[in-house]
Write a structure and sequence with these properties.
Radius of gyration: 23 Å
CATH class of the largest domain: Mainly Alpha
CATH topology of the largest domain: Butyryl-CoA Dehydrogenase, subunit A, domain 3
Shape: extended
Strand content: under 5%
Strand order of the largest sheet: 1-2
């Protein structure tokens, strides 16, 4: 496994630990006589909203790091693949977002400045974020995707589903894209040139809402 992925996992785990502490603080603040008080919870509504975002981003980072490792294992440990680079970039973004939310209103989450400095604002976290969110790093990832016809990672699908994906990609590229601009700019109904091939692909019961 990549040492960078190992580092990202460790830093994301630190973020999870900080988030768990914030959740415990909010729970303690909102609990009255052994039950959650709706009115006290409302007093911390913004903080609750933001910890939900933190949980989502941390979980997504864990999933991406796990996915990257699974692909690397399937590809015999091939290093520096696009899956790894995207996972590292997203992990850095998640760390930056989480520490930004916590720093904006530390007291609401039960943190002191010293606690955050020792964890999410540590030199290691800061260096990781600056490395993988740098303009140079993000440009390199974007260039790699463009040079590989939009490839953003292995789907880890079986042969049948991979074939289906290729069919729909070809349909989008060869049938939809040449007509899309004209249809949108003229506000036209979708023509049979698109609908009939969709039927052939087994897409029945499609609907296009009025609004």
């Amino acid at each position: 496994m990549s040492s960078a992925i190992d580092q990202a996992r460790a830093l994301i785990d630190q973020a999870q630990t900080a988030l768990n502490a914030a959740l415990s603080h909010l729970k303690a603040y909102s609990t009255s006589t052994g039950r959650v008080s709706g009115s006290k919870l409302d007093e911390k509504q913004l903080a609750c909203y933001e910890v939900a975002y933190c949980e989502a981003e941390i979980t997504a980072a864990k999933v991406m790091l796990g996915y990257s490792s699974n692909v690397a294992q399937a590809k015999n440990g091939e290093a520096n693949r696009i899956e790894e680079r995207l996972a590292l970039q997203y992990s850095a973004e998640a760390l930056q977002n989480v520490r930004g939310r916590f720093n904006a209103r530390r007291a609401d989450f039960g943190f002191t400045r010293q606690q955050l400095t020792a964890t999410l604002d540590s030199d290691e976290v800061d260096a990781f974020i600056n490395q993988y969110l740098s303009t140079e790093s993000m440009q390199a990832v974007g260039k790699a995707v463009l040079e590989n016809a939009g490839f953003t990672g292995e789907y880890m699908l079986d042969e049948e589903k991979e074939m289906m994906r290729d069919q729909f990609r070809s349909f989008a590229t060869e049938v939809v894209m040449p007509l899309a601009e004209h249809i949108h700019t003229k506000d036209l109904d979708i023509p049979d040139d698109i609908l009939k091939p969709l039927v052939d692909l087994g897409c029945f019961g499609l609907s296009i809402p009025m609004q």
